[in-house]
Amino acid sequence: MTTTTRFTAWRLAALTLASAFVLGGCASTTPQAQLAAQAPELSTFQALVRQAGLDAALADQEVTIFAPTDDAFKDVPAATLDKLAKDPEQLRQVLNFHMVNGKVLAANVTSNTALDTLQGAKLNVSKAGDYLVVEEAMATRTDLSSGKATIHVVDRVLMPPKKK
């Protein structure tokens, strides 16, 4: 199986999960349905959150999420995606590196702000003019609201630092 074929198969599985997730919530105004309507480019991220079992926990707490777009996941090597698909704990670690407790609005970010992620590592957030920069990713949309979550859409998947 080629790298492209593996990624396509993995992405199809993620999108299938996302479709079930979104369609299951359409009858109500769940945070997931709200987010799906506001940011359809986050379907892969939403599917992975559900696959990792983080959706229920996130519904009950105020968090800020730096959510990668579907296109950002295309830039992740297929071997890395395969590894994450097979290791739920590692998947949770990667997803939790995209999340911090509390509400962080783009306007409140100052230069070189270090935030504690739910994964445990620091996440560097700063401003470049009017743009929000998260590690090496740029926020393409900021301050979306979904339930108790504040979401900033980013153009890269962030990987937590390797544990020593």
TrEMBL record:
**What's the superkingdom here?**
Bacteria
The Gene Ontology CC terms held by the record are:
extracellular space
Q: Locate the FAS1 domain: which residues?
A: 29-158
Against InterPro entries, the record matches this protein to:
Adhesion/Biosynth-related (IPR050904), FAS1_dom_sf (IPR036378), FAS1_domain (IPR000782)
Gene3D superfamilies xrefs: FAS1 domain
One Pfam family name is Fasciclin
Identify the PROSITE patterns for this entry. Answer: FAS1 (PS50213), PROKAR_LIPOPROTEIN (PS51257)
Signal sequence interval, chain numbering: 1-27
Keyword line = Signal
Return the protein name: Fasciclin domain-containing protein
The species is Aquabacterium lacunae
| Organism taxonomic ancestry | Bacteria, Pseudomonadati, Pseudomonadota, Betaproteobacteria, Burkholderiales
